[in-house]
Design a protein that fits this description.
Conserved hypothetical protein from pyrococcus furiosus pfu- 392566-001, ParB domain
Length: 274
């Protein structure tokens, strides 16, 4: 994994902690644009118990708001857990940042901490692209994740709404979602996802299920009519490249279709072909 650059968490917290001050919890409000939407109750209770015993070990980061209030930039889990623990004050660092800068910092900080579920991470990446005009390559350097990883997260945003809910609540992992996205239609994806959840399938089992369902949609008649020599060539290419290959031949011309399911796989295929 690449080293994170830019305004990540390390750039926000001074090493000597001289800028830390105690602020009343009631004067701090959560960031209205907080990218993290789901806060696990059990994890918050564990953090609250730790804070009761040891205090808040890392300050939250806030920006000044009107009326003596503050908005959180980073540390909403600590803020929530401190309230649960019954604390009146919390250590905080006040940063001079606009609401736009605060959102950018909050998005990057959460991503760098792996503090979001996969769908929240995908949405955070998309917001950074849309609102701050990052390219995927720039994002890769900024948050310390491979470009291919970012591309895979962004693919989750193509899921039907029902499946996004399954990813958000943990019923489907990112690996499950990637496999399901290989199916050609939204209805096929929804049916497969429901089957995966009902049967408790692993990612590998889900990949197998989706391949079987995609193949079953093809006309058996069309498959039987294909020239045996073409089928043999397809199988040899499949074994050589390690992915699905289809030859569409008519007369003296045609085309070869080679499938890939991620940018990493595309890179692998290009190395073989080039």
């Amino acid at each position: 994994m690449k080293t994170a650059l830019g305004k990540g968490l390390g750039a926000l917290i001074p090493e000597d902690q001289t800028g830390v001050k105690e602020i009343d919890l009631g004067r701090i409000e959560p960031n209205p644009e907080q990218p993290r939407k789901v806060f696990d109750k059990g994890a918050l209770e564990e953090l609250s118990a730790s804070i009761k015993e040891k205090g808040v070990l890392q300050p939250v980061i806030v920006r000044q708001a009107e009326g003596g209030k503050y908005y959180l930039i980073a540390g909403e889990r600590r803020w929530r857990a401190a309230k649960m623990a019954g604390l009146k004050k919390i250590p905080a660092i006040v940063k001079d940042a606009s609401s736009s800068e605060a959102l950018e910092l909050a998005l990057i900080e959460n991503i760098q901490r792996d503090d979001l579920n996969p769908l929240e991470t995908a949405e955070a990446f998309q917001r950074l692209i849309d609102e701050y005009k990052y390219t995927q390559e720039e994002l890769s350097k900024r948050v310390g994740k491979e470009r291919a990883t970012i591309a895979n997260y962004l693919r989750l945003l193509k899921l039907p709404s029902e499946l996004k809910g399954f990813v958000a609540d943990g019923r489907l992992s990112m690996g499950h979602a990637k496999a399901i996205l290989s199916l050609p239609t939204k209805n096929a994806q929804i049916e497969a996802a429901r089957a995966v959840i009902k049967k408790g399938l692993s990612v590998r089992e889900t990949e197998r299920l989706c391949k079987e369902r995609a193949f079953s949609k093809k006309s058996a008649k069309t498959v039987k009519r294909k020239d045996p020599n073409i089928l043999s060539l397809e199988e040899r290419l499949k074994q050589s490249l390690g992915t699905k290959v289809e030859i569409k031949h008519k007369g003296k011309k045609g085309k070869i279709e080679i499938e890939y399911y991620s940018l990493e796989e595309l890179d692998r295929l290009l190395e073989i072909l080039l």
